[in-house]
Inverse folding.
């Protein structure tokens, strides 16, 4: 009963968004304010109805109502209560629904929190958002109805994918989808700016905030996904350049690039068209990522939701691209050039353009690598594989390029090739970076790297990261000194700078953390009961395999007593788990973390007869914690920057007055 | 009960047919079926072998096993995977390493048996050269291209008689000097 109601609510959503699009387009053509308001109300109504439908689905999950096909597919009686709620997005129908719901919510927020000087472009914004939403609702009803009934109702469900029964799966998909859907708002504003014919001041303020919001969510979502892979899949890594990972990384790169383009536009009024294109492409690629994940075109560890929905997505993507290209072709010439002509010399704006070039190049490489197997097979008929070695051949170079660009770009100033205190700061930073690098090299035990090339790459990389960090900090101190360390004054006017500073430091920490992946210390040990293995200063003593029940899983735990330098420091229990709904044994990773490295142990095999013998895979993963810390720092930086008070063209005028 | 959804479904089933995509999806479904069949069950017979990690043999073994893909997983090399298929491949690799074959010979052996698909990155031959050249082209030709377009734009503006603010300011300053002098 409730499920049928849910379906009809979604149907109403489709009707209401369709009305919303038509009303918004007519409102824009006739400049009819009340018609626009009705379109906004239509979206608000869709949002309310979709939320109610989502609550219904949750309620059905909670009650384990197996007369709903989706719940039958993704839930079961033995599933712990918390996972019956996260099962909502554990497969195609629900994750599609979550995507649509979040888009509804952010679209509604965007329409109600407009700024006064954007009022005239809001009908276009409303039309763009609801056009996408209408399509999503249509797909939801036609191809992935989460409320589809199953008769007769079964007594038990098939069960949730066992890999997804992990706390990170409760938070990772909603966070990532938040990033994807929040990118729809800058894209909608871009289309609106094109349709209207120019960019307004309020446009920049609103777009910047939404882009920052999406950026924070994407950053958090991607790293949470990496963390899930790290603790769940048991191969001791967090990033495999897997197609689904790549398809979340590409929008992140576009989003980051868009932020830098917005900065130039804010300060100088240039790069308007680039901003519009990037804002659209960022959203386009987040859609494209969804297409890759959902369609089964490319197989991946993360694609838990595949269906023949693919061709529909492809048609929509093509239509979206075509529509925006046509609008752009007709309307872009009407976007006014900035008031002042400009020579692009050696200056901060040029550095920002170079940064964008590096980010977009990486996006292009990731895209080429992800799609190459499909293209190659279609053209030559030969099956190929593109995995980590391909991406690792390019990505580190671009990463190091970015590290250098961050330092140089932040020391530069707008509209001038002067670098106040630049050479002194750079040389000073290089000197200060030496001891910092030494700390990183010793603490992270870089010298244990076996290959000379990897060793050199790490030392150089760590030095550049340290140098860049010190340069950035030096620039901050210099700016503070210029205003005699009046912190209150500084914070009230420079939150964007402070946020940018923190986010850049976060990225540098992350890159220092990625460099740890080169070290790769591992060992495979088969132990009899009571035997001890020595590994990297740790002694691990194996007792025996214990079988125990935890929630719905049967665990086969191999208890290991860990001692270091003769002192016992605790026990870890790597395990394999068997879930009632699956025959496979999952990894339950055991982690023992210090600041500098993780001891990462998986149980790869054990004696089934008496549990007195087992094989363990031991890994030391250096500086992994840096990556988790970095994500936190970057998101904090993004949030701080979001609170920057926009001062309109005043900053631009101030720069011009100073010349 | 849900005849309306069924109807919607049949309606969309006759939508535009994208043959290439369909073929691809079919192809990959076959692959995924393979993947679904074996996602790393533990070998019941024997305990896992301890692979060598030190010395020239260990290094070569790691290098080669790290360049071959695990046929039944996604994104992983055989080195990182403990699926049964990967274990077998690792055994062959170790055998050949111990027999004194070098990296190229072992990779060649696997390429002949499974096709280039088994390598984790496409070998830069034939059409695959494109996959390697494209990123390099963007990286190397990108900056000159950006510079060229920016530079050319300025020239066009100047030849059309549109002057930059700087030029006007310079001219005004020159005239001021003339008047003063």
């Amino acid at each position: 009963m409730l499920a049928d109601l849910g379906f009809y609510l979604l149907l109403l959503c489709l009707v209401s968004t369709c009305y919303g699009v038509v009303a918004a387009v007519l409102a824009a053509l006739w400049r009819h304010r009340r018609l626009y308001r009705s379109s906004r109300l239509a979206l608000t109504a869709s949002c309310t109805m979709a939320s109610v439908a989502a609550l219904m689905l949750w309620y059905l999950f909670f009650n384990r109502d197996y007369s709903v096909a989706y719940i039958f597919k993704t839930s079961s009686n033995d599933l712990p209560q918390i996972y019956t709620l996260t099962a909502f997005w554990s497969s195609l129908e629900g994750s599609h629904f979550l995507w649509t719901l979040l888009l509804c919510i952010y679209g509604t927020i965007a329409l109600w929190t407009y700024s006064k000087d954007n009022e005239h472009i809001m009908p276009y914004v409303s039309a763009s958002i609801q056009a996408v939403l209408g399509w999503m609702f249509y797909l939801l009803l036609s191809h992935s109805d989460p409320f589809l009934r199953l008769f007769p109702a079964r007594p038990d469900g098939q069960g949730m994918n066992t890999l997804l029964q992990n706390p990170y799966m409760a938070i990772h998909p909603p966070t990532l989808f938040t990033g994807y859907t929040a990118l729809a708002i800058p894209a909608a504003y871009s289309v609106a700016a094109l349709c209207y014919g120019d960019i307004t001041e309020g446009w920049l303020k609103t777009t910047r905030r939404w882009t920052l919001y999406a950026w924070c969510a994407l950053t958090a979502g991607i790293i949470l996904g990496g963390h899930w892979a790290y603790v769940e899949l048991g191969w001791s890594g967090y990033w495999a350049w897997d197609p689904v990972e790549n398809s979340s990384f590409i929008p992140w790169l576009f989003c980051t690039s868009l932020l830098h383009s917005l900065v130039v536009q804010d300060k100088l009024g240039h790069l308007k068209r680039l901003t519009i294109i990037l804002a659209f492409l960022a959203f386009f690629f987040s859609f494209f990522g969804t297409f890759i994940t959902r369609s089964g075109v490319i197989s991946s560890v993360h694609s838990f939701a595949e269906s023949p929905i693919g061709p529909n997505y492809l048609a929509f993507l093509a239509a979206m691209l075509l529509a925006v290209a046509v609008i752009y072709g007709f309307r872009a010439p009407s976007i006014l050039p900035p008031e002042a002509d400009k020579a692009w010399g050696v200056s901060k704006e040029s550095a920002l353009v170079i940064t964008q070039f590096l980010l977009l190049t990486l996006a292009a490489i990731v895209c080429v690598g992800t799609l190459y197997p499909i293209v190659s097979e279609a053209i030559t008929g030969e099956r190929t594989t593109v995995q980590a070695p391909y991406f690792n051949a390019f990505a580190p170079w671009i990463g190091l390029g970015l590290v250098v660009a961050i330092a140089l770009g932040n020391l530069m100033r707008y509209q001038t090739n002067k670098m106040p205190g630049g050479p002194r700061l750079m040389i000073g930073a290089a000197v200060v970076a030496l001891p910092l690098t030494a700390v990183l090299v010793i603490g992270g035990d870089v010298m244990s790297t076996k290959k000379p090339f990897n060793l050199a790459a790490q030392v150089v990389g760590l030095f550049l990261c340290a140098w860049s960090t010190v340069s950035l900090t030096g620039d901050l101190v210099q700016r503070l000194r210029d205003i005699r360390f009046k912190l209150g004054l500084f914070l009230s006017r420079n939150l964007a700078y402070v946020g940018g500073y923190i986010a850049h430091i976060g990225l540098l920490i992350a890159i220092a953390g990625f460099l740890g992946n080169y070290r790769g210390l591992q060992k495979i040990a088969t132990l009899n009961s009571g035997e001890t293995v020595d590994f990297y200063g740790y002694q691990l003593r194996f007792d025996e395999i214990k079988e125990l029940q935890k929630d719905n899983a049967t665990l086969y735990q191999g208890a290991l007593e860990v001692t270091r330098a003769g002192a016992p420091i605790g026990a870890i229990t790597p395990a394999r788990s068997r879930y009632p709904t699956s025959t496979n044994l999952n990894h339950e990773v055991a982690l023992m973390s210090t600041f500098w490295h993780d001891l990462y142990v998986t149980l790869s095999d054990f004696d089934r007869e008496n549990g007195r013998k087992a094989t363990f895979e031991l890994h030391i993963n250096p500086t992994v914690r840096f990556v988790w810390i970095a994500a936190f720092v970057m998101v904090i930086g993004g949030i701080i920057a979001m609170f920057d008070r926009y001062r309109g063209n005043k900053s631009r005028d101030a720069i011009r007055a100073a010349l | 009960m849900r005849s309306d959804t069924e109807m919607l479904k049949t309606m969309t089933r006759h939508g535009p047919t994208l043959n290439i995509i369909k073929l691809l999806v079919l192809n990959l479904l076959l692959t995924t079926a393979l993947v679904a069949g074996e996602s790393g069950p533990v070998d019941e017979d024997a305990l896992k072998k301890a692979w060598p990690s030190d010395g020239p043999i260990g290094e070569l073994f790691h290098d080669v096993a790290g360049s071959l893909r695990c046929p039944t997983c996604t994104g992983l090399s055989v080195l990182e995977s403990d699926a049964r298929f990967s274990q077998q491949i690792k055994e062959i690799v170790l055998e050949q390493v111990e027999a004194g074959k070098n990296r190229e010979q072992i990779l060649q052996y696997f390429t002949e048996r499974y096709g280039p698909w088994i390598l984790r990155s496409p070998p830069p031959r034939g059409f695959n050269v494109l996959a390697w050249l494209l990123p390099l082209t963007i990286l190397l030709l990108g900056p000159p291209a950006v510079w060229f377009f920016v530079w050319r734009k300025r020239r066009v503006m100047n030849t059309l008689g549109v002057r930059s603010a700087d030029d006007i300011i310079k001219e005004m300053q020159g005239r001021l000097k003339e008047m003063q002098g």
